[in-house]
Write a structure and sequence with these properties.
Blueprint (H helix, E strand, L loop, with lengths): L4 H8 L4 H7 L1 E5 L5 H11 L7 H14 L4 E6 L4 E10 L2 E9 L8 H15 L4 E6 L3 H6 L3 E6 L1 E5 L12 E4 L5 H8 L2 H18 L3 E5 L3 E9 L6 E9 L5 H14 L4 E5 L7 H6 L3 E2 L1 E2 L2 E2 L1 E7 L6
Parallel strand pairs: 4-5, 11-12
Antiparallel strand pairs: 1-2, 2-3, 3-4, 5-16, 6-16, 7-12, 7-13, 8-9, 9-10, 10-11, 14-15
Helix pairs in contact: 1-5, 3-4
Length: 309
Amino acid sequence: MMVDIEEIIARQAGLISQRRSRMGYRIRGMKPSDVVAVVRIANQSFLETARISSLMGRRFAQRMKESRECLFVAESDDGEVVGFVVGSCEGERATIGWIAVHPKHQGKGIGGMLLGAVESRAREKGIYVVETGTPFARKFYKKYGYRCVEIHRSMLLELVGKGISIPEGLGIRVVILDDLDWVMDFIGDEEEWLRFLDAYFSAYGRDAEKAIAVSSEELVGVAIGETNEVCSELVKLSYLFVRDEEKAMDVLSCLVYVTSTRGCRWFGVELPVKGITEGELESRGWEDARFPFFWTKYRMRKELPLGPK
């Protein structure tokens, strides 16, 4: 006997079939031909950078090539695609990558139907945990039984309207290619050195001046900043190394100073960073990041009920 996936989705979302009919929407698998609808919904629905056509279009193509088993769209009775969800089912948990509903169709339970589609697919595969990360949609996920299990904090400092200076007794030097040998000697550990190289050459093309070495009588630390790909007014910390963790805030302050001298407006840090605490940043005027292009992420989780699907 054929299983009606729409009925499974309706039960999972707590909706009866009569209500689903009145709503006039159904869930189906995503197809390559849905690309325009998906990108346009992303344009108009997401606050964060997933709204950018080039990013979402490229991700759409990548996911369609990798696996389509957890890719769904919501479709109206007249065949219009009004929402989509991009999920995955791997290992012991399923994940929600992106979910969006066209603004004209929001508030009608379509988001819950899309979540239900991924949850039902997960249960078919014997997976009973679904997770996602979101900067702005915690209320939506809580409505459908998800809870916050972890916070990935990002902090932001406004550079305009503040006195930004080099900590007393410290000097700053831009790290050029010929300096890498002595930076390697300072870092010592090979794995840490490779992390430095990854950050250094990632920033090298357009942010070479934001790789700095900080010293007093001897080298104190190295740090690298990288300009945000969406907002050139924001630079974020991409690497920091100190031997003495008590010096970490001083090295960060030096990089903030260099950023300020370039006329940038904001500096961002994604925690955790060794030697730097959320409390210390807050005491110096840093705030929780809530920009569409730089944000604190909340990891949400739902445990699905065991038993028959």
